[in-house]
């Protein structure tokens, strides 16, 4: 029996990793080239998607071969980080750890009926998911530039919303315009469940509350026409529209999976830290010192001098913290409170500087951008 692992590179920025038995492909996954926001920096990420093994070949280790080959290939190609949206209690075997929570704001039709908005904006529900995609991408970039983990949408090359919340169909786009200029938008599920209307994403220029209220007023009309009893907004808890929804009465829910859903792990720590150096320098004003992050097989020291950050290979400091690949991703992406995380791992010296460089954040990938 001949077993072979290989990577087939496509021209669209995707790479198929497959394991074949006697020439037959039995297990595979796809690596997608992604860019994520990281404050003042942008981060290259290898997104893993479409992991599958033929049913009759399961339980024989072929999925493990495929995943390990994918990780080795990404390491050899210089990917600093990899991430996926996966089933629970499986990918931690490959050192992935949860890097984001799931958040939903729910408001009833009755409460939404209380929204009052002026008629200064023209708000229309468009059937085309690529409606004014360049303008929407530009607005999205302006409103998400300081977020962590949200995907980059390059105006001009981003082609619109391929999905909303559910896979398999594109969404509709509710757009608020003023004199033809896009002022805000909401991504509306095309085939929603019987009683609720999922809103996969919402943004407004300068996070204008006036624009958000205009969008909400039209969402109410859509719900009333389609006999929906509630709207569910998939938004992070620090999003300004949550402030608006709270005014009229809503319920907000957050869940934090133990080992599942959005997960990430570090592949190349030095490259990862070097790629976010601009953001680290912004965070390091008034901070001085040096600390080493030690992973299995790799150690990198950060030397900080009041707004200057140097990334050095090896242990060049007495302050050392030992982390796993997944824990390092959680720290760097701001998913876990740094003091809580550091209290669970081996440290030497004073590693408190890491709390300044990697404060707790709300990493979030919008539903339409998930892979």
Q: Explain this structure to me?
A:
By secondary structure, this protein is α+β, with helices and mostly antiparallel strands. It folds into 3 domains: 3-99 and 257-263, Aminopeptidase (3-Layer(aba) Sandwich); 102-255, Aminopeptidase (3-Layer(aba) Sandwich); 267-357, SCP2 sterol-binding domain (Nonspecific Lipid-transfer Protein, Chain A). The chain contains 10 helices and 20 strands. The chain has helices spanning 62-76, 109-112, 133-144, 209-226, 240-248, 269-275, 277-283, 325-333, 338-342, 353-357, and strands spanning 3-9, 14-21, 24-38, 41-53, 81-86, 97-98, 102-108, 122-126, 148-151, 172-178, 181-188, 196-204, 230-233, 251-255, 261-266, 288-295, 298-305, 308-313, 320-322, 347-348. Strands 1, 2, 3, 4, 5, 6, 9 and 15 form an 8-stranded mixed β-sheet that branches. Helix 4 links the parallel strand 12 (196-204) and strand 13 (230-233). The two termini are 34 Å apart. The relative contact order is 0.16. The mean pLDDT is 97.
């Amino acid at each position: 029996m001949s077993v072979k692992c290989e990577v087939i590179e496509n021209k669209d920025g995707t790479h198929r990793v497959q394991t074949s038995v006697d020439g037959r492909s039995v297990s595979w996954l796809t690596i997608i080239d992604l860019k994520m926001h990281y404050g003042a920096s942008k981060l290259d990420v290898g997104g893993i998607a479409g992991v599958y093994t033929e049913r009759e070949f399961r339980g024989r280790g072929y999925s493990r071969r495929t995943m390990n080959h994918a990780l080795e290939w990404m390491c050899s190609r210089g990917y600093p980080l990899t991430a996926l949206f996966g089933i629970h209690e499986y990918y931690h075997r490959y050192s992935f750890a949860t890097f984001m929570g799931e958040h939903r704001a729910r408001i009833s039709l009755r409460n939404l009926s209380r929204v009052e908005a002026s008629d200064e904006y023209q708000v229309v529900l468009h059937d085309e998911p690529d409606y004014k995609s360049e303008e929407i991408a530009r607005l999205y970039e302006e409103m998400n530039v300081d977020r962590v983990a949200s995907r980059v949408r390059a105006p001009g090359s981003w082609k619109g919303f391929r999905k909303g919340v559910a896979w398999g169909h594109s969404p509709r786009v509710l757009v608020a315009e003023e004199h033809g200029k896009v002022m805000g938008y909401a991504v509306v599920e095309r085939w929603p469940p019987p009683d609720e209307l999922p809103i996969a994403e919402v943004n407004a220029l300068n996070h204008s509350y006036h624009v958000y209220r205009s969008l909400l007023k039209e969402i109410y009309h859509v719900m009333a026409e389609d006999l929906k009893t509630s709207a569910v907004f998939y938004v992070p808890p620090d999003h300004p529209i949550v402030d608006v929804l709270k005014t009229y009465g809503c319920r907000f829910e957050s869940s934090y999976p133990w080992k599942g859903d959005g997960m990430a792990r570090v592949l190349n720590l030095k490259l990862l830290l070097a790629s976010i150096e601009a953001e680290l320098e912004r965070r390091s004003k008034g901070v001085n010192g040096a600390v080493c992050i030690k992973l299995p097989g790799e150690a990198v020291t950060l030397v900080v001098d009041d707004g200057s950050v140097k990334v050095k290979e090896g242990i060049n400091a007495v302050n050392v913290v030992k982390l796993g690949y997944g824990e390092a991703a959680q720290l760097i992406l701001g998913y876990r409170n740094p003091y809580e995380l550091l209290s669970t791992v081996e440290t030497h010296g004073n590693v408190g500087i890491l709390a300044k460089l990697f404060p707790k954040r709300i990493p979030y990938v919008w539903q339409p951008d998930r892979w």
